[in-house]
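Write out the bound-state structure for iron/sulfur cluster.
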Amino acid sequence: MKDLKHLYDLEQLLQECNNDLVKEACEKGQIAVGDVCSMIPEVLLNLPGCFSVRLRAPRTGSIEIGTYYMTSLLCEYCRALVERAVEGGYNFLDCIIAPDACAAMNRCVENMELLKTCEKEKFFVTYSDVPMKSDETALKHYVRQMRLRVLEPLHDVYGIDVSDAALLEAVEQHNKVCRLIRELGEFRKEEYPRITGYEFYIFCLATYCCPKDMLLPILEETLEEVREREPDQEKTYRIRVLLAGSEIDDLDFIKLIEDNGALIVADRHCFGSFPGRDEIKICEGEDLLTQICRHYMVTGQCPRFMNTEKVEERKDYADRLAKEYHADGIIYEQMKFCDYWGYERMAASHIMHEEYGYPVLSIDRPYVVGSSGQLRTRVQAFVESVEIKKIQGGR
Ligand code: SF4
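---
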């Protein structure tokens, strides 16, 4: 297939957290909000006058300083963020708005704050209590927390407009991005997809890491390009997979999977399009912030939600996606030492195999996989086993 016009530039942009689009927005006086988890409604961090940047630590090498502050028994993603912060990599931020979602991330952001890694005069950090259950009582608390820990500080420190009109504007922009990303992702359903999982991933990841208004024209142009694109007339993959898991912001990890013959047709992870790029539906007659928080609570697929309905729903959700995108198997991954995903991955990889009948590859991985030979071998073996299964008619 012909190369996509913006792919290379975005790949380069994603090599830096403080990338050229972020720099341009900061120069225009926009407030850069550091975001570390989907439990804070992203749309609240993208009100007019500010934009969110999901923190990553691309091209991480050693994480010794991060390990010194965090110990070697916490997730490498969090350690890599501390390392990058100490190196001055997040100095462009005006604030970090973090949830008390997992203890590791909590320690990570606390370290960034205590070590004074961001030097802007008005820089601040907030932490908020986010729900572990999805019900109306949890929602009330969630709404209060978002008002106290997100909207009020943004307004009080930086004068950000947090009125309903501003919230609506942010929702509209979010929905535009979602529609474009989802439409782009739909092409992965085709037998000869006009976009690979890797290409799609680059565009989707960029939506978490760049100012959305600057990305919109790029997404629009790319969608047009993909609509017109001639797909390869031969299959360039051996099997189709759903990739499910936690923080996947490592381009090499996606490349490694696809280079070994497994096309990623659906992405259900913290930097993926499911559920992060679900449109927010707003109706009249109810407080806007409540509707926004409900959306994130109801659509959220994080294993932090521990009520039985949510636990069951997560398996059905993966099953539905796998069917819709014609996946032959599922890859469940987790970051080493992540408690939430440790349980989720372990249980799901059995249940999705035993009860739902999918071939499942279960991986725990470091933050950066590089060209890991061990992982390559495991993906190759998985691809072969799924192929054999298909030849044997699913037995
Ligand atoms: S991967 Fe797990 S431990 Fe790491 S930040 Fe995410 S939820 Fe927390």
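---
The longest helix spans residues 136-158.
Residues 75, 77-78, 102, 104-105, 246-247, 335, 338, 340-341 surround iron/sulfur cluster (CB under 6 Å).
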